[in-house]
Design brief:
It is built from 18 helices and 24 strands. Adenosine-5'-triphosphate (ATP) binds near residues 42, 43 and 385.
């Protein structure tokens, strides 16, 4: 057996009202990929932040190469070669790619920054990781997927021995995931040990050597990957049998058109036409950069419309801003919740009621009882793990923050829901709840457009699918034509080299 370079014993960490880690143990062997799984709020990120010196535990021991520490500091973790790619990307948006890669360890020459050398080195690393982008671009100008890869490059290029990836593939599509797997393979060969946190079990079976399950801040089990299977893992994660990942299909006769767009163009999409009927879930497939998110943003008035028409019902409307959209009954649940979906410094309750204040007014006052019913109901329905409705959203785990965004829009009385990657980072149990919520919306005659890179979800939930490619609709699949093969056929742009793909996205 390869030696264990890291052993965590009896780690306990409390936050006000929460025991995030309760006497947990964990170990990591040299050159292994050790997956860490568990429901939202199980304590995965908290444990990893103990390793990077962000959290100091109340009790327990951290053994690295046999040397015992009661806690680490950010500096000592760095010196020991521990690096983490955070679930919430923390790159500096206004800086360039190379500045991010070399942040805190800049090359200098005669006391001055050696830009030339950093750029050359960063360009070389980008190419090595199959990203054909100049490193002088600003982070803000590249997609979330590319930002993720830059973060990985940053970690890898600084002599990492233990690399922690917190849901690395959440924002990636099929191509990028494959690239990430290759990258993980290379790192393993170089003897790097990897902790891999993910809610996508099928990918864990592809790349992990061992797997550890947490539930409610406790260590439940550790297995060699060959000794377990998806079903028993799910049972260990949720603590009960979960036989179906999708609720039964709701097949209602569809109502009249609720939304229709005709030849809509922005700087990112071209001549997109579609119609959505009451009670319908229209799935949008396609690769990263194909214009899926941009389509939703256009409908929501977040990007400038160059031409085209939008009809709600039979009414021709002009949506020039998200404010117009909300007023017209269109809701967007964005992909990047941290930036667009949440007020982090406000409470769970305030976030949930924020966009539907009118509904909670009684005369000139807010109706406290009605608010507490609605918020309490949402917390229970979506199993939002929080000590209470007054907890600030910034203290919730990644997946639970996402549930708050969903709860917020469920409270609003929208007619059309635009979901961008609705279950990204959400655990299996809660995914089911979200699918049920979508079905409820359907039954209530709402219309849903859903962008998803999760093939199973797209196929499992959509009544019809439009596939996008290069900012245009490249195919439409009716219910009985929906297969992975058909989606990929319309989505693929194999004939394009990567460099081209990049240029097109600008
Ligand atoms: N700084 C903090 N203050 C208060 N509570 C916190 C803080 N950080 C984490 N928690 C709580 O600790 C628990 C564990 O959170 P953690 O982020 O480790 O979960 P996770 O397993 O990573 O979940 P997810 O899959 O949603 O990312 C949660 O209940 C969370 O709300
Ligand atoms: Mg987490």
């Amino acid at each position: 057996m390869r030696n264990e370079i890291l052993v965590l014993q009896g780690i306990t960490k409390r936050f006000p009202g929460v025991v995030a880690l309760d006497d947990v143990s964990f170990s990591l062997r040299q050159g292994e990929v050790h997956a860490l799984v568990g429901e939202n709020g199980a304590g995965k990120s908290t444990l990893m932040k103990v390793l990077t010196g962000m959290n100091s535990p109340e009790s327990g021991k951290i053994l690295i190469d046999g040397v015992s520490h009661s806690s680490l500091t950010i500096q000592s973790a760095k010196t020991l070669g521990i690096s983490m790619i955070y679930q919430e990307l923390n790159s500096i948006q206004m800086l360039t790619i190379f500045e991010n890669i070399f942040f805190g360890r800049e090359y200098k020459r005669g006391g001055l920054l050696d830009r030339k050398r950093m750029i050359a080195e960063a360009d070389r690393l980008l190419l090595e990781f199959e990203l054909n982008i100049p490193s002088t671009r600003k982070m803000a100008e590249i997609t979330v997927a590319y930002q993720q890869i830059v973060e990985i490059i940053k970690a890898v290029s600084s002599n990492v021995r233990i690399l922690i990836m917190d849901e690395p593939t959440a924002p990636l599509s099929i191509d990028e995931v494959k690239m990430l797997y290759r990258l993980v393979g290379k790192l393993k060969e170089a003897g790097v040990s990897i902790v891999y946190i993910s809610h996508r079990l099928e990918e864990i079976f592809q790349i992990a050597d061992r797997i550890t399950v947490f539930r409610d801040g406790r260590h439940i089990a550790t297995h060699d990957i060959g000794d377990t299977n998806e079903e028993s893992l799910i049972k260990e994660m949720v603590g009960r049998e979960l036989s179906n990942q999708y609720p039964p299909r709701v097949d209602l006769p569809l109502g009249p058109n609720i939304l229709q767009i005709k030849r809509l163009s922005t700087s990112k999409i071209k001549d997109v036409s579609l119609r959505l009927r009451q009670g319908e879930i229209l799935g949008i497939g396609g690769l990263i950069g194909s214009g899926r998110t941009e389509l939703l943003r256009a409908i929501f008035g977040a990007d400038r419309i160059l031409s085209g028409e939008v009809y709600l019902g039979t009414r021709n409307v002009s949506i020039k801003s998200p404010f117009d959209a909300i007023r017209c009954g269109v809701a967007l649940i964005p992909e990047d919740r941290k930036q667009h979906g949440l007020l982090l410094k406000m409470s769970v309750e305030d976030n949930i009621i924020f966009s539907s204040l009118k509904k909670f007014m009684k005369g000139l006052m807010l109706n406290a009882a009605q608010i507490s019913d609605a918020v309490g109901g949402a917390i229970v329905r979506l199993a939002i793990k929080t000590p209470g409705p007054k907890q600030l959203v910034k203290y919730l785990s990644g997946g639970n923050q996402q549930k708050v965004v969903l709860a917020k829009w469920m409270e609003s009385n929208a007619q059309v829901y635009l979901f961008d990657e609705p279950t990204r980072g959400i655990d299996v149990g809660a995914k089911y709840e979200i699918y049920e919520l979508m079905n409820t919306l359907k039954s209530n005659g709402k219309g849903i457009i859903m962008v998803s890179s999760d093939m199973q979800e797209l196929i499992g939930m959509s009544d019809r699918i439009l596939v996008m490619k290069d900012g245009q609709v490249s195919g439409e699949l009716k219910r009985d034509e929906i297969t992975q093969e058909n989606i990929l056929k319309h989505a693929s742009k194999k004939h394009l080299p990567r460099a081209m793909e990049w240029r097109e996205e600008e």
